[in-house]
Amino acid sequence: MRISRLAIVVALLAIAPATATDTTSKLPPSRYIFSRVPDGFMRLDNQTGQVAHCNQREGAWICQVVPERRAALEEEIVRLQSKIASLQKEIARLHAQPAAPPSPKSVPEDSNAGLKTPTHDNPSAHGNIARARAFIVNTWRQLMDMLANLQKDVTRKG
Question: Domain span at residue 127?
């Protein structure tokens, strides 16, 4: 008899959040949300975010807390944030203008003998800069995508 009453209470608690769609209701939100799984229920604590697996053993309902990976996810977020900061510094360094070339009068004539000095009008220099810029932009986008996916995982699991 006690088991059947407990089962009814658990069933009512599982149904209550699904049927409480009236937004004008003055009832406070329930603390727990239950979802049926093959061997019992999963319980989500709306106040703490803690998830527990509940099933019936030896005539009593027992809920065991499901271990979290939140600490590992937070460590990964910190690592990615530091990587973003270092990439932003690298981008700022690459965007900085290069130092002005030395004036031709300060360089002795014979030191330039047989050497062609690179200029900004050199097409291969423009190609190298464009490739470097494309690489950085692509890397930045991939990093942002990784952070967005990580944040979605954290909010989905948290």
Answer: 68-97+123-158
Please tell me whether residues 73 and 134 are part of one structural domain.
yes
Would 24 be classed as within a structural domain?
no
Sheet containing strand 60-65, edge to edge, reads 32-37, 40-45, 51-57, 60-65
C-alpha 112/C-alpha 36 separation (Å) is 81
Contacts of 2 (CB under 8 A, 6+ apart): 59
- SS3 of 85, please? helix
Per the domain annotation, does 36 fall within a domain?
Answer: yes
Nearest CA to 39 among 60, 51, 53? 53
Render pLDDT for 30-49 as a digit per residue (tens, 0 to 9): 888 888 999 899 998 888 88
**pTM for the full predicted model:** 0.30
Same domain? For 58 and 42 the reply is yes
